[in-house]
Amino acid sequence: MVLAGKLSTELGIKAPASKFYNLFATQLHEVQNHCERVHHTKLQQGEDWHHSDSVKHWKYVIDGKVHTCNESVEEVDEQNKKITYKLFGGDIDEHYKVFKLILQVFDKSDGSGAVKWTIEYEKINEDIYPPNGWMDYLSKCTRDLDGNLVKA
């Protein structure tokens, strides 16, 4: 019985890697303005969107259904443009004991950029499916965000 798992995808982007990373590192509250699948975000606890003690509430659409969860920053690695988020509450707790979302943005050798999303999870029981819908959600949000960042 395997309850823990990891999913990962790497997506090319047209926006500079530093600009894409900066959106998540310093302007997370703006994601809802660039991604149609994110319906609402709000700072639920704390005074700063990017502090590890802060908790944000998210409302988003995966597989055509509205979901909610809370999120906090678990780790930031500025040098490697990598942020680890812990997701909990709402729909997450109904299916998973652990749910981490890891964003890493980097420049490729050909001058283009890329975004790597990784989900680390532990299901509450073996009847729960892996969070495959999340990978589609992250791919579509990345495309929306990249398109808006290129225009800006």
How would you explain this protein's 3D organization?
The chain has one domain (4-151): Alpha-D-Glucose-1,6-Bisphosphate, Chain A, domain 4, CATH 3.30.530. The chain has helices at 17-26, 31-34, 90-95, 132-151, and strands at residues 4-13, 38-45, 55-62, 65-77, 82-88, 96-107, 113-123. The mean pLDDT is 93. The chain starts with a strand and ends with a helix. The protein contains four helices and seven strands, in the order E-H-H-E-E-E-E-H-E-E-H. The radius of gyration is 15 Å and the shape is globular. It is an alpha+beta fold. The protein has a seven-stranded antiparallel beta sheet. The relative contact order is 0.25. Strand 3 and strand 4 form a beta hairpin. Helix content is 26%, strand content 45%. It holds the Pfam family Bet_v_1. This is MLP-like protein 43. Residues 2-152 form the Bet v I/Major latex protein domain.
- Number of structural units classed as domains: 1
Distance from N terminus to C terminus (CA atoms, Å) equals 48 Å
Q: Strand content of the residues, in percent?
A: over 45%
Report the radius of gyration as a whole number of Å.
15 Å
At CATH level 3, the topology is: Alpha-D-Glucose-1,6-Bisphosphate, Chain A, domain 4
> What is the string of helix and strand elements?
EHHEEEEHEEH
CATH class (first level) name: Alpha Beta
How many helices does DSSP assign?
4
Query: What general outline do the C-alpha atoms trace?
Result: globular
Instruction: State the total count of DSSP E strands.
Output: 7
CATH superfamily: START domain
CATH architecture: 2-Layer Sandwich
Q: Please bin the fraction of helical residues.
A: 25-40%
What is the averaged pLDDT score? 93
Major sheet summary line: 7 strands, antiparallel
Low-pLDDT runs: none
Order the strands across the largest sheet as they lie in space: 1-7-6-5-4-3-2
Provide the structure class.
alpha+beta
